[in-house]
Amino acid sequence: MVETITAKYVQEDADWAIKVSGLGKELTARAPGIIAARDRADQLVEELAGDVKTTVVHLLNGSALDFTSAYMTARLTLPKLPPLEVPPPGSVPKQQTPASADKKPQLPPSKQLPKAVEDRKSPAAAPAPAAESKAPAKQA
Fold first, then answer.
1. Are 58 and 67 in contact (CB under 8 A)?
2. What is the rounded distance in angstroms from the CA atom of residue 4 to the CA atom of residue 75?
3. If we measure between CA atoms, which residue out of 8, 138, 3 comes closest to residue 67?
């Protein structure tokens, strides 16, 4: 038979308090956000249940829907990034300094050619053929 374990979440300022109960036991913990709280709840469930097959119900304010909504909002919200700095017109971006302008950008391994192909296509590896002239050479 599958045992039911309940994970209850309560927000306390920026932290979350977690209470996992079931199988006649109860464990508690704290975490710095709802995503970390869910991860911590999973760890507590493993401690509580061991190898017993369980179903876990996550509740926020007594509602699984409230928990799912808060958790998915946190998972799908993009992190706040610093504002993009736009350089003034005519300035050289930091990535393209004169010393690094001569180097080719490094390609990811999946886009790189095998070394043998790179060696064959390199202009320094193969000397340029001498130009043939049809005019006879002058004799002195």
1. yes
2. 25
3. 8
Q: Which residues contact 44 (CB under 8 A, 6 or more apart)?
A: 7, 18, 20, 27, 29
DSSP bridge pairs for 58: 7
> Bridge-partner residues for 10, per DSSP?
17
Mean pLDDT of all residues in 115-131: 58
Other Cβ atoms within 10 Å of 38 Cβ, number: 20
Among 35, 77, 25, 76, smallest CA distance to 58 is for 35
Fill in the DSSP letter of residue 95: T
Confidence class for position 92, pLDDT limits 50, 70, 90: low
Backbone angles phi, psi at 67, to 5 degrees: -65, -50
Which string of b and e fits 9-23 if b means at least 16 CB within 10 Å?
beeeeeebebbbbbe
- Rounded to two decimals, the pTM is 0.55
